[in-house]
Amino acid sequence: MIRHLISHLAHRDHPIAAPVSDDALERLLRRARLPARARVLDLGCGEAEWIIRALELHPEATADGVDVSEAALAAAAERAAARGVADRLRLHHTTAAGHTGSEPYDLVLCVGATHAFGGLTGSLQAMRRHLGPAGRALVGEGFWETTPSPEILALLDAGPDEYADLSGTVERAERTGYATVHAHTSTRAEWDVYEWSWTGSLTDWALDHPGSDGDAALAAARDHRAVWLDGYRDVLGFVTLLLRPV
């Protein structure tokens, strides 16, 4: 099964699609202090939960969501319609790097999708091109809670410089030309809720769909759970930074 379909199935019961709680998500969006008739962009939106929440909080706002997964975008359209914001949400089936907007945005998000731009620095450079002068960027990125062992790096297929520690992650963001105005560091409980949901939702789907696709989904869930429980749990952290260009 292709990667983005696995991701869509795994996030079925956790549409935030990051180790972030409902309350933390709302706090981040409120701290963005969007103006009336704000324009919002999510690069790698998945099922668009972040921007649907933004539209619910700001009834005059409009949003664009960009993703390569047709399944995720179809789910996003259904969610937006069910929650009464579909007329203010435009969904684009394209790569995050391929999106072009005709006007600047007041808030640009890229949460858990910085791989689309080769990492945090490339993501923030791309996000800045979409931001208006007073706009804000909301970016979610991993960081090393503790120094990873060679064995854990091998499990993650990552190098030691894949991420920095928390201080270094903030420094990387600010070197790109931003100031940090707020942030949320995910707790262990948020991580556990996210990972058990990820692996459990995919396992549930696999057991309901016997056959080659179900076998592939079940294998992906078990592989992911092993890498998490035996590898990056308490090693990899996640921080969502609210940034302003300087």
UniProtKB/TrEMBL annotation:
It comes from the Bacteria. Residues 41-136 form the Methyltransferase type domain. InterPro entries: CFA/CMAS (IPR050723), Methyltransf_12 (IPR013217), SAM-dependent_MTases_sf (IPR029063). Keywords: Methyltransferase, Transferase. The keyword Methyltransferase applies. One of its GO terms (molecular function) is methyltransferase activity. SUPFAM superfamilies: S-adenosyl-L-methionine-dependent methyltransferases. Gene3D superfamilies: Vaccinia Virus protein VP39. One of its GO terms (biological process) is methylation. This is Class I SAM-dependent methyltransferase. The lineage of its organism: Bacteria, Bacillati, Actinomycetota, Actinomycetes, Streptosporangiales.
